[in-house]
């Protein structure tokens, strides 16, 4: 069974892979479109999943330190979501496409590093005392990602219940629009219930 740290880290590696596919294929706009859409899809869902499952757990299990960590992470997410909103509305043929993705990757890669080196180890240390809690959180994180928006909506906020309510309104529209976007080897969006 996967821990919450394993689930988050797995997502981070996938997001990084999609980023690299876009950056390393500058002359293949179809490839960039597919991987760019996959990048947006995964990052948007991952971010909301963290905000609804991981950050409340940090606040619950790590006390004031966890509250401070979660609030810092939410602020970092707000910056990334704003940049993602700009990128997700671009086409691979736009002259600034790669530059905007690199602009987004800077703060995102710092956030990922901080989560993996500081936040998640601190959380896992506390979760060790509660048998099965980390694994249960990983399952909840996966289920949550199946129902949240697949595009960035910075105006939804980063705090439940507002984000939850806004997400439930935006998710069906995002999922419907995904049917008309290109993804990797498919012409329709990945099925979020299988991720």
Description of the molecule:
This is Hemerythrin-like domain-containing protein. InterPro entries: Hemerythrin-like (IPR012312). Pfam families: Hemerythrin (PF01814). The protein is an all-alpha fold and about 200 residues long. It has one domain (about 5-185). The protein has helices at about 5-25, 30-90, 95-125, 135-145, 160-180.
In short:
The protein is mainly α and 195 residues long. Helices cover 72% and strands 0% of the residues.
Low-confidence stretches: none
Q: How many β-strand runs? A: 0
Helix segment count?
A: 5
Distance between the termini: 15 Å
Structural class computed from helices and strand pairing = mainly alpha
The protein's oligomeric status is: single chain
Q: Give the total of domains.
A: 1
> What's the helix-strand series?
HHHHH
Largest sheet: none
Radius of gyration: 16 Å
* Overall geometry: elongated
Strand content: under 5%
Descriptive terms for the model:
single chain, 195 residues, mainly alpha, 5 helices, 72% helix, elongated, Hemerythrin-like domain-containing protein
Summarize the helices and strands and which ones pair or pack.
Elements: H1 4-23, H2 29-88, H3 97-127, H4 133-145, H5 162-178
Helix pairs in contact: 1-2, 1-3, 1-4, 2-3, 2-4
């Amino acid at each position: 069974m996967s821990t919450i740290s394993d689930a988050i880290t797995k997502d981070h590696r996938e997001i990084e892979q999609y980023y690299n596919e876009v950056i390393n294929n500058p002359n293949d706009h179809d490839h960039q479109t597919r991987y760019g859409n996959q990048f947006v899809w995964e990052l948007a869902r991952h971010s909301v999943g963290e905000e609804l499952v991981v950050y409340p757990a940090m606040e619950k299990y790590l006390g004031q330190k966890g509250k401070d960590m979660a609030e810092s992470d939410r602020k970092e997410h707000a910056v990334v979501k704003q940049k993602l909103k700009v990128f997700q509305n671009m086409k691979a043929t736009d002259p600034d496409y790669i530059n905007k993705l690199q602009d987004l990757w800077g703060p995102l890669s710092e956030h990922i590093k901080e989560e993996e080196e500081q936040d998640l180890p601190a959380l896992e240390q506390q979760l060790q005392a509660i048998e099965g809690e980390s694994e249960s959180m990983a399952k909840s994180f996966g289920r949550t990602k199946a129902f949240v928006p697949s595009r960035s909506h910075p105006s939804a906020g980063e705090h439940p219940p507002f984000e939850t309510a806004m997400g439930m309104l935006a998710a069906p529209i995002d999922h419907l629009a995904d049917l008309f976007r290109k993804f990797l080897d498919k012409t329709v969006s990945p099925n979020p219930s299988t991720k």
